[in-house]
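Section 5: illustrative case.
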């Protein structure tokens, strides 16, 4: 049996409407996939809003978002990113942020949020509480990092051949469910005009770190 598609609320603090449309078109190259995604993704772009920005810690905004989630049967909330949408949470108000996330979860929706790394790429923005309170931590690396990887497989090197293709490595630094993903990584490749495919699945982080 095919699982029903998730209804995703995409909460973004950086993209304009035109940038979102371009990104959406790139990531959904086939018409059937694009139509499926269009009917199940609800973009909420701060730069397109009347207020010009969103604040995840604002009680009124939280209440309005919860109502939207319940009314539309949202099952996944993606927050991109904490710096633009919840910068106060990076400076001592992590408990308030996660209490809001827990409330979202109580209404049946999972929360995925983006947090940027520090300049040395060794840590995350904000306190260690953000990492400790998260169920799963996925570090995403793109072309520049993969191109410098001397231990990259032939399949990954082949995926990097066309500069227009999207190639990304997902490092599961922490994963409670399913535990088999913990400390593993996957590499995905999206050729121009093609569909996403896995290049490397469930390899241990120790193979390249």
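Designed sequence:
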């Amino acid at each position: 049996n095919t699982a029903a598609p998730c209804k995703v609320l995409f909460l973004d603090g950086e993209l304009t409407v035109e940038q979102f449309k371009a990104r959406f078109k790139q990531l959904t190259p086939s018409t059937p996939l694009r139509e499926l995604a269009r009917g199940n993704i609800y973009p909420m772009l701060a730069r397109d809003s009347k207020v010009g920005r969103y604040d995840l810690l604002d009680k009124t905004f939280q209440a309005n978002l919860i109502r939207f989630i319940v009314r539309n049967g949202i099952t996944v909330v993606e927050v991109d990113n904490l710096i633009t949408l919840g910068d106060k949470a990076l400076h001592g108000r992590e408990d308030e942020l996660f209490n809001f996330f827990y409330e979202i979860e109580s209404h049946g929706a999972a929360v995925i949020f983006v947090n940027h790394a520090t300049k040395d790429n060794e840590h995350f923005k904000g306190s260690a509480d953000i990492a400790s309170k998260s169920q799963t931590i996925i570090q995403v690396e793109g072309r520049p990092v993969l191109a410098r990887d001397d231990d990259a497989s032939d399949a990954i090197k082949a995926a990097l051949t066309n500069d227009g293709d999207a190639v990304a490595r997902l490092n599961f630094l922490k994963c409670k469910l399913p535990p088999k993903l913990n400390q593993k990584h996957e590499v995905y490749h999206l050729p121009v005009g093609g569909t996403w495919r896995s290049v490397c699945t469930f390899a241990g982080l120790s193979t390249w770190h």
